[in-house]
UniProtKB/TrEMBL annotation:
Pfam families in the record: Phosphodiest
InterPro entries cross-referenced by the UniProt entry: Alkaline_phosphatase_core_sf, Phosphodiest/P_Trfase
Organism: Halolamina pelagica
Presence of the UniProt keyword Hydrolase in the record: yes
GO molecular function term, any single one: hydrolase activity
Entry keyword annotation includes Hydrolase: yes
Keywords: Hydrolase
Name the record gives this protein: Phosphonoacetate hydrolase
Length: 522
């Protein structure tokens, strides 16, 4: 028997509730009927990174030293982009290995570059990529013989082709995502048979891209039906299964352009640059990608157009992600924000104006409402070092925004108004995801439970008879069947082991190209 985690990026029960009632997801319903679960609260910001690592470590980002894909270094006026080597913690599979268990990881985000474990690691999107146009073909898995098997036997791909994007989300792009879902499950099943790990983790990631662009539309329903069909691969072998997500997805009713608001309020100033000129003549990244695809020239462009030139082209919403800092007038700027909420001040914490500015921003942001609907745009604003806990909490963003319900906070600079009724995404990230334990060792109690995403690691370790590190934030959940071995056994604790890989990975520029050019830093 293998313990299996199936991670579904951006999943939440509200999204799929009607499809469950209609009988469209029979295998998931079977797991629900036999299991116990409910809502899982992610860490802020509720995005892929940091939350897949919060699951894998059982810790909040204050103990990981990574708070999202990137951070804004206002002192040096630059973006810093993270890869797997920047996280300061061992993971679930490290602890299982340390106690004699083998493990396999397939497609979990924030695992690139993949490390060597007693088992295998297949790195996942969006970080395992070279550029917007070229998917990573080698170096995505360890050990080398597993990567060779995936390439030769399954023609394994890290990313869909053609890549779905804001302007390219037609039938071909949807089918590419559906095919990739099938490929992920096929790879997991084949590696389970071939390598026989005692623990297996599988993430389905690009279904989240469909949810971003279509919310609960027909492409998303088809993706969930494909996921459900493939869940059947693991249901009849007596495995213990955890189905979980890093966060949830809700429909976007309002877009809050936080940098446009900061500019309007006098906290952020910009300089006129090439981005503005290109935008005025209608030359945007969406149009460039669409034209390149229609002419069959994406590979040619990737080879002949320098990456720095590709990144000059603005999105239709304006300047975003890695380009925001290049248009800022730093001498006249006090605050700048990243996508989905982190705000960084240019003031030193020792400056007398620092706390006064944070107080002022908190008061103004928490009072913001939609001018027509009265909808609260920001549920709460937290000081980073107070929200997080751990030795690296002081490295956190100066402020964190907890987005209002059905609000997406965009970092775009350029919109004339900071509030819009629609944007690029139809579905945005929300803090509550899902968890569901099902199998011989778990009781059947439905979906009435609540948990933190950090509870999943200690619960899995205890399920498998392993000790729980005493520096985690999560707790072992009360999910076990009466009389089962984990229910009868007391939770054991142990000293943590080092998971520090700092300095072993790529430089910031390479990581920036993989993430920003892939477009995931929307």
């Amino acid at each position: 028997m293998t313990t299996i985690t199936i991670g579904l990026d951006g999943a939440n029960w509200e999204l799929i509730g009607d499809w469950l009632e209609e009988g469209r997801l029979p295998n998931l319903q079977r797991l629900i009927d036999d299991g116990i679960g409910g809502g899982s609260e992610s860490c802020l910001p509720p995005i892929t990174v940091p939350n897949w690592k919060c699951y894998a470590t059982g810790k909040n980002p204050g103990k990981l030293d990574v708070f999202r894909f990137d951070r804004i270094d206002t002192a040096n006026q630059e973006h810093v982009f993270h890869d797997a080597t920047d996280f300061r913690s061992a993971e679930l599979w490290d602890y299982l290995n340390d106690e004699g268990h083998t493990a396999g990881v397939v497609n979990k985000p924030s695992t690139y570059p993949p490390k060597s474990i007693d088992g295998f690691v297949v790195a996942g999107g969006p970080d395992a990529s070279e550029t917007t146009y070229r998917s990573l073909d080698t170096g995505f898995a360890t050990p080398p013989e597993v990567e060779q098997f995936l390439r030769e036997e399954l023609d394994y791909r890290v990313h869909p082709s053609p890549m779905i994007s804001p302007t390219e989300k037609g039938a071909a792009e949807v089918e590419a995502v559906l095919d990739l879902i099938e490929l992920r499950f096929e790879a997991a099943e084949r590696l389970l048979d071939r390598e026989d790990p005692e623990f297996l983790h599988l993430t389905v990631f690009y279904s989240m891209a469909l949810q971003h662009y279509f919310w609960d539309g027909e492409p998303v329903r088809r993706a969930w039906e494909r996921i459900d069909e493939n869940l059947g691969r693991f249901l009849d072998a007596g495995h213990d299964v955890l189905v979980m997500s890093d966060h949830g997805t809700w429909p976007v009713d309002t877009v809050f352009y936080v940098n446009a608001w900061l500019a309007q309020e006098g906290y952020l100033a910009t300089e006129r640059g090439v981005d503005e000129l290109l935008g005025r003549v209608g030359f945007t990244k969406e149009r460039a990608l669409s034209l390149a695809k229609s002419l069959g020239m994406t590979e040619t462009l990737a080879n002949v157009v320098p990456e720095r030139v590709q990144r000059l082209v603005p999105w239709e919403e304006g300047v975003k992600a890695d380009r925001v800092l290049s248009v800022i007038d730093w001498d006249a700027t006090t605050a700048v924000a990243s996508n989905q909420g982190p705000i960084y001040l240019t003031l030193d914490p020792g400056d007398p104006a620092y706390e006064a500015t944070r107080d002022e921003l908190i008061r103004k942001l928490e009072a913001l409402t939609h001018p027509q609907t009265g909808q609260q745009l920001v549920k709460a604003v937290y000081r980073g070092e107070a929200y997080y806990d751990g030795p690296y909490a002081h490295h956190a963003p100066d402020l964190l925004l907890d987005q209002g319900q059905n609000v997406h906070v965009s970092d775009a600079v350029g919109p004339a108004e900071p509030i819009a009724d629609e944007g690029v995404w139809a579905g945005g990230n929300m803090p509550e995801g899902i968890f569901l334990f099902s199998g011989p060792r778990f009781r059947s109690a439905g979906l009435g439970e609540q948990a933190s995403i950090t509870d999943l690691l200690p619960t899995l370790l205890h399920t498998m008879g392993a000790a729980v590190p005493d520096d985690v934030d999560g707790e072992v959940l009360d999910v076990f069947a009466p009389g089962s071995e984990p229910a009868e056994r007391a939770v054991e604790y142990r000293a943590p082991i080092s998971g520090d890989r700092t300095g072993a990975g790529d430089d910031d520029e390479a990581v920036e190209q993989r993430l920003a050019d892939l477009g995931y830093l929307e």
